[in-house]
Each structure stands twice: as C-alpha cells, then as structure tokens.
Amino acid sequence: MATNTKPDLKEELEKGLSTTSDDSPAKGPKITISLGEDIEFISEVKPDEKPSTGRTIVAYTAYKEEKEEPFSITLNDLMATLDQSIADLLPKGLKNKSINFKNVMVIYRKEQKTSKGEWLFVLDLDIATKIKLKSLPVVGDLISDEVGKEELVPSLRLVVASKAFSIKEIRVLNDKIPDKDDDEEEEEKEKLIPPLPVPKKVGTDASEAKRSVRKGFSLSGQLGLPDAAKILSLSISPQQAEEEQEELAPGGEEEEDNVTNSNLAVWFDIDKTFGPFSLKQIGFQYEEEDDEAEIAIVIDAVLKIAGLTLSCDDLGVGISLDDLTPSFKISGIGIEYKNPTIEISGALLRADKEKNGIKYTEYLGLARLKFDLAGKSFGVSAIGAYAYYDGKPSLFLYAVLDVTIIVDPSFIITGFALGFGYNRYLKVPSIDKLLDFPLVAQAVEPTDSKFSDDSELITKKLSEMDKYMPISIGSGFVAIGLKFTCFQMLDCFALLTVAFGEDFEINLLGIAKMKIPTPAKDSKNTSCILNMTMLLRARFSLSEGVISIEGQLASDCYILSPDCRLTGGFAVCLWVSGPHAGDFVITLGGYHPLFKKPAHYPTVPRLGFHWKVGDCLSLKGEKYFALCAHAIMAGGRLEANFKLGKLWANFVAEAHFLISWKPYYYEILVQVRIQAGYGILGPVSLGVQLHIWGPEFAGTATFRIIFVKVTVEFGDQSSRLPEPIDWESFQSSFLPPAKSTAQDSSTAADVCSVVLNQGVTKQLSPATTKEVAFVVNPKELELVVNSAIPSKQASYGDNEPLPVSNAKTDFGVRSMGIKKDQLESKYNIKITRKTKGGDESESVTVDYDQFQFIPITQDVPTALWGDAKVKVVKVKGKDSERILLPEANDQQFVKNTLSGFRIVPQIKKDVCSTNIIDVNELLHDTTAINDVYAWQKTTAFSGVSTDNQARTTAINNNIVSTNTQNKRNNLLQSLGFNLADDVKLTDSVANSFVIAPQVKA
Q1: What is the pTM of this model?
Q2: How far apart are CA 442 and CA 436, in angstroms?
Q3: DSSP state of 429
Q4: pLDDT in tens, 90-101
C-alpha cells in the first residue's frame, strides 16, 4: 500500500502503470491520500486490445450504492494532487468548499504515441433527498403516482477532465471501468461503477467526434423520466466555457437536435404528456451568488384538469452544494378557468432582485375576469406589484373596467381605468413606444386570457412592469383613464398620469383607432380601405422645464391597401426653465436632412406614404416642416421605382427649403432625376437641379443629360446673400417693447428689469407708479436684475468692476452683421440711498462692499447674438457687406452669456472676539453669596379712575396730544409708512372700546 502524507495522486497512478504488465489486466496498488481524512483507492490497470496502443489505470473507492458516511472533500485540494492548472478552473463558489461525495473514481490513460497522460475524475454527489416529480410544489399532488415516483436525475455527478473528450473517447474510458464480480453470465456485464452516459447507439464518425465532456469541471447525469432518457453534460467552469465555443453533444438514445446549450446552462425539449401533466422543457443551470454555489433544475410544465389550466414559471429544484439538500421552488404561476358564463385568468410572479446593493423580493401579478350579467358583458383586468424595500413597502395597482354606458349615440363610454403607485415612480415612454406601455396596453389590448398556455408570456408581461414603474422611495403616481367610441367609428382611450417624487411630471396620453368601413363585431371579414391609429402625448416636466405636445401615426396605418403604409408625426415643445430655457421647436414630419437634431429635441417621423403597387412598381413620398430658434426648414421627396424583368427605371424628385428671418432670406433647392436601363445597358440618366434664393428672386438651373452639364443663371446673382438690418429694425423686432410709465412717457425698449425676489414684508405703492416703495427684511433681501441684451462686462457705480464668473463673451449681433470683436456691451449697476432729512432728489451711492453681486448666465439664440459671418461682395459695381446664411447644423445657442445679477446684502464678518473663559468657572457652584441683588422699590400702579367714562376721556385726550402725535409720526416714518395715506388715527378711536382699558394716572 502506498500512503501519501504529501499527496501526489498523479505520481501514484504513474507508478501503477509502470509496475504492471502490458498484455493483461492486473490489480494495481492500493493508494491512500490524506485530505483531512484518508481516502483509499483500489486500482486496476487495463491495457488496450493492442498493447502498443495505450494503457489505462482505474482507481476507485470501495463502491457502494448508498455509502453510510460520505467523503467530505475540498475540490481544490483533491484536484491539486493531479494537476494544479485544472484546480485553477474551479468556479469561485467551489474554490474552498468542502462537498460530500458517495464514491470517487479516477481514470488515468496514457497512449503509447504520447508521453502525456490524460485523465477523468468522477465524483458521485451525495444528494440528501431523492428528487421526484411528486415532490414539486403546487403541481406535485396532482401528478399520478406512476409518474411522480420517478426520479428526475437518479445519479448526479461532478466530472473533472484534463482535456475535452469526444463521445468516442468516453466510450473507450467507459470500457476500462471494472465489471461487477457476478457468477451469472450475461451478454453485457454490468459495470462495478456506473459509466459516464453516452448514446447507446454508435453513430457516424462525425457524430462520435462531437465533444461530450469539456475540459475542467462539469456536471454529468441522465434523466430518469419515462421515454426521456436525456444525457446531461453541463460545464461549470466559466472561463473554460467562454474559451471553448464548440457545441457539446448531450442527447438521448440517438442523436437529437432538441437540446439547447449556453454558458453554464443546458435545456432539454421534452414535450411529453403524462395524463393531465404536460412537461415541455427541463433545464439545468449552475448559479453562484455571494460565493454560494447551487445547481438549479428548472421545469416548464402545464397541468390541465377539466376547465382549469395551471402553468408554472421557474418551477424546479435548487441543490445547494454546501449540504447537497434540495429545495423545491417556484417563481411564477398562471391559472385559467373557463365555462360558458365566466372566464378567469391570472398570473403571479415572484422575483428576487437587487437595487443599490439592497436585496429584496418583488411580487408581480395580473388578472382578468369576464362574465355576463343580465344580458350584458362585463370585464375587469388588473396589474400590480408589491415589494418591501429598504424597510418600506412599495406597491402599485392598475385596473381597467370594461363596461358600456351610452351617453349619446355619437359618444359611448366603453370603460374606465384607475391606478396608483406608492413608493413607485412612473416612467412614461416616448410616443413611438406608447402601445407597449403597460397602462395603455392593458386598456387598449387586454391581456390574452390564454396566456397560461405559455409560461414565457407570464414572465415577459410581468417583468415589463418594473421597467416602467420602478421602486423609488418617496415617489408616487396616480393615473385615471377613459375608453370611449365616437360615432361607432373612432375607438379612443385617454389616460392622465401625475407622477411626483424624483420629478413632478404630468402626462396626458391618447390612442385613437379608426377603420373604414368599420368591421362588424365578431366578423371574420376585417378588410377595410382605411386603418388609422393615432398616438398623442402632452407632457409637462418640472425638472426638464418642458411643455410638449406630440402626435404620431402607429406602424399599422394604411389607406386603400395594406401595402400603402402611412407615416407621420408632429411635435410642439417649449422649454421654460432648466438648461434649455428659451428653446423651442415646432415640427411636422421632422427636420432638414442635414440638420443634426439636438438630443432634447423629439424624434418625429416624416409625413408620407410607402406604397408597393404590385410586383413591378413602388411609390414613396414624404414631407416635413420645422421651426426652431434660428431657422425654418421645410421640404419633401417623391420617389418611384419600376422593375419588370431586366427593364428598370426610377424617378426621384425632392425639394428642401431653409428660411431665416431678420434678415429675411430663403433658399430653395429642387432636384429631379430620372434613370432607366435594360440589363447591362444603362443607366441612362436625365436630371435637373433648380437653386432659388431671395427675396430678390434669383437662382440657377442645372441640366444633366448623361455626361453633359449645363447651368443657366437668372435674376440678380448678387442678391444671394441678405443685407444686415439696422438698429431700429432689430430693436423693434427682437427687444421687449417699451412700457408706459405713470407719467405717460415711454422708452425705446424695455431692456433692463429689476425684481425684488425675496424679503418683501409689505408693498407701499402700486406697481404702476414711477417708483414702487416696499418695506423689506434686510436679512432676506434679494434683488434680481436682468437684461434682454447679453453683456460682456459689468461694473458698479462709476468704475468698480463686477465679477462675470465663466460667462462667455464671444458673441455679436448676427442679423446686424456685427462681429464678436466689434460689439461692446456693459452692464452697470448703481444703488443709491436718500439722504436723511434731506430733499427727495438728494441721494448718495451705497458702497460696493455693502452687497454681494452673483452673476446670472443664460443661453441666447445664435440667430440673434451669434458671431456675424459677413462677406463683402460687388453689387452694381460697389462693395456691399452681406451676411452669410446659417448652416443647417449651426450651433443654436450661445452658451452662458451674462444676463444679470442676484444682489444680496453682504454678510459682515464678526471682527470681535470674546475672552476665553475657563470651563471650571462655568461649573455649578452651591456657595452662597450675600447681597448679590440690588433691590429697588417702585411705586404701586395707580389708575386714572374706576369709572369707564373717565378712562375713555383720558385715552381720547392722550391720542390727540401734541407730544403723543410727534412720537407716533416719527416711529411710523422710520418704518416707511406714508402718514397721509397709510395711518389715520383720530380721537374717535377711544369710543371703539366696549370697556376702556385702565391707564396710568
């Protein structure tokens, strides 16, 4: 016997091969290795039929069907006795984990032509409980005993291979496993140790060469279900599975194609029915979470009894490799019941998730009920979810009631929708994905009542909910909807949603469908000449500062024929705050082809059609219009293609317009092209391009005939570029109009504004007066000054410069032809204080250091304040400055220009400091100190009179006394009150007392 205190199993196997003869089987040495406990191997040497081919040694433990005490082995240590490089292929969850095995076998083979040995380690997992269909949750009790008693996987093994083995090579290794020592003679003796599963029928050379076991670690076994003897080979070495992409070849009695392999998972298509139990698929998967390894067996099954159909999602078994104890689980369940009067269907999904490092379990469900009552049909469908996340509940519920209420023959209500979310935020998708939005899809296209026939639909529909209604603590939403028909032709659904928390957002969603002629209910003839679905969305978002209205045709729209598809959309967007404040866009059908759409602009499809007229001819047309901050764009395209055998032809006509204003200018480009050919003859081309500009109408026309090009000019060619406008035109067009003052005078433009933003306690005069007076709290005072003209410099008073932070100064006045280096703009602020006791016209300037001046920047349109692009051209023999036209992709805004300041009082630093006081001086002291207080005697209060009338008379005389009036007026004036208008106090106030208060004599 060889015992290794420093185990090296490979060395012992090599010795076993070298100490036996080459021509006959022989018992090898007993090998004992110590890995926490002694593992004793019995070895046998098996030469090939031709000794010159190769020799094999098989070492195994004393095999028993049910070993009383399993081996507890750390795989990393065991594999290191053979090959450390293979031990390094262990997945992370098994690195230092001790696992129980019933029996262990290693087959070590060395072929004569190579000196390198190849080996296969087989370890039978000691699973604590047999895995049977009868043990499955929910459906187990409903499965017949005959089928339920069968084990899913009678024997599950961990296989470790030094290389990838083909089916043919596994057959050779299986043949070397010793036979049982039975006296009975059999045609095929039973092996002492169960061999690795391979197809019983030997296939072609190509099929036998397919890979059966990957290099590294894998799970091996065979399904025990009747008529479904599938062979399992599942790799659990992630890095090796990624490197070796060749397909594995597990199968059954013969080669089969109904096996799906992926990294760390394998699926078998079963499609077997056992009474009411239908088994579709079985999957095996290796999973790791927090370094905990598990083998998952997942079953896709359906159970049908009478009118009840029950489907399961992720029904199966999890086998933890810590203790090899199976745990039965189910992630989702679908149910359907149907009879002539009522239909019920529903689904529930349980999902383990993680967000921001916090794990939680979420339950998602949907249900539908349909029934007849008093001759009327009613239906209710609902979706919902619940989770307990970070110590707080999170849920949402949304229900749709299908009911008919005839308000008027032209307006019939067909349903209502209502929903809410708590600690959930609602994400409304873009308009092109509106039909997939669960709150819309649930109302417009209710869940199919037969979804329990396919468990994949359960998971798909329910998992989409978390995409649109994610958990968000502190957020919530409400939704209310209405379904109705108009004139029995237009089916509509409107949904209003209000979401708050992460953002405050309001959405009004609309779906309108129309078919002409309208198909009769339950009619099989659904053909029509017009099918339209219009999607609408109105939105307000507080964080983005956007108000938008969008509309779009769905992809199923057509006219005359389903082959004549219609497209189109529109959008109106206005940004009132945020980073894009002041921007806007109005578009019908999208943008200029060369326009680079900003990310915050909506995507709008072309207004157009695409009609395939038979097999020979196709027609396509589209058009667009867009208005944004610096230009107007419009255009269209018409295309026709014809092909008949070798004869072909096409026609393209398109026009694009780019229009700017102040200075007003337009440019039009029109192109027409015709091409034709026959086989290799052609193409023969004919084309014309018309380029027009104005308002001084001019342009060029270019003709192309094959290789000939002719250009004809017409109109005044010098008018191609517009002239700059003057200041008066710019001021009247782009600056705020003047405001009339109380004195009926006006200024040329209201460029600057002053707003008292905070700190107002009282307004003393109307806003229409020349000077508005306020009473303010100086601690909260904040003034905001702004200008419609961006500034490059700022100053206070006469010459004190103000900080402008990172404000951009590279701007001009584009429409006036003023370049950035030619424009000077300076913001000047002056704060004055009236002199005390002086004339109203006398005032002094407040020192600069009394206030803080915080710059305010904003983006301004390039069309107004961009750097002018000027070119000098000859017009009628004289030089004339003209403005170059903006490009389609010109920058739309000049970023961060100085527009004004926030002015707040300067916080004065405390220049004083107190003396340091020893803390001991502040400790509680119980020492009594005499004469601490100096008491002063005061005279007792003496009232005027006990008679009420006498007290009233005293108050009356005191109010009108000269001394009292002077003190009162000084106090009110210092507070900013107007004595003539704000305070009117006479001696009659004394008569207002029911009982006059007592006053001092």
Answers
A1: 0.62
A2: 9
A3: P
A4: 887 777 778 888
